[in-house]
Each structure stands twice: as structure tokens, then as C-alpha cells.
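Dear colleagues,

As part of the handover before I leave the project, I'm documenting each prediction I ran so the next person doesn't have to rerun anything. This entry is a single chain, and its sequence is reproduced below.
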Amino acid sequence: RDDDYALDVKILDNNSIERYIKSKKIKRIGIEDLSLTRYDKLVKNIMADFITTEIVENRRAVKSKNEIEFLKKSADIAIMGMNRAYEVVGDGVNEMDAVAEIEYTIRKAGSETPPFYEGMLLSSGPDGADIHARANSSKICRGLVVVDLGARYSGYYSDMTRTIPVGALTKDEKKVLGFVKNLELE
């Protein structure tokens, strides 16, 4: 125990919790956010009544003033990144170069990590239909470009997705963009 740290830290093996529950003869256990596989294993290995709950999830939904400020700052950083995306995404620009510029803006503004740890998503051309497409060495061309980015500030995340038009759009592309913009407003 460290006097400067309020909690005792113990390294547990995979079955430590199950052994503890058995040793204390606990008969009712509240659980939440558990995979079906893990739930089945617990039911098989521990003779207890399992009660599903959302206590932790519900408590985490309520944010303190500090948490709200962290979320706002994270969102502000993401907005800066998206503003930069609107500046650098253009016809003939290499997707990876655009991502580098946008991520530099986000990190310079205070994001603790690249968006989503592995980096933001940017896709153009046929890849734009893949919601998880990563940027590649392709050149952006006329059409719709999907940009998905976020920031992490004091451990709090933001996430923002926009569809950016490049050049003159076809009638179908205009319909898609109109549909997406209506969704963004909801």
C-alpha cells in the first residue's frame, strides 16, 4: 500500500473473482455489461443468482461540471480538426496527406491521442461507402469525402463525422449529401 494512493492495488488472475465469490458464499450478484460467453461461464462456475443491473452505466451517464468541461474541450478540439478538414480536403490531395494535416491540428490543439488511437477515418471515391475505411495513398477526386474524427481530452472523447463535397456533384451525390445533412440536424 502506498500512503499517497487511497486504494490497495492487487494483480488478479483470471479466476480470482470467482474464487473470492465462492469463498465468501455470496448468493446474489449484480452484473452489467457482460458478454454472453462470460455470463454463461459465471453461471456454470458459480452457484448464485445473477441480477442484471445498469447501476454503473446510469451513474456514468450523469456528468460533473468538470466532466462536462472536459467533454466540451474535447468537442472543441474535434471541431478545430473538422474545420481543418474542410480546408485541406480537395481534388487531387493525397488522402494520407489530408489526414496528417487534420490530425496535426487535433494533436496541436490538445488531444491526448490521435483520433480513435489508430487515427481518424477519411474515405473518398468508392471507399466512401465503407463506414470504417481508412485513408490510403489515393488522391481525393470530385465527389463526396467522409471524414470521421475525434479528440481525447483529460480522458474524455468526442466523435464527429461529416461528408464533405469536393467539386461539382452529380444529381445523385447531391441527394446523398442532402440526406446526410438532414440526418446531421436530428
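The longest strand covers residues 143-153. The longest helix spans residues 65-88.

All the best with the project,
I.
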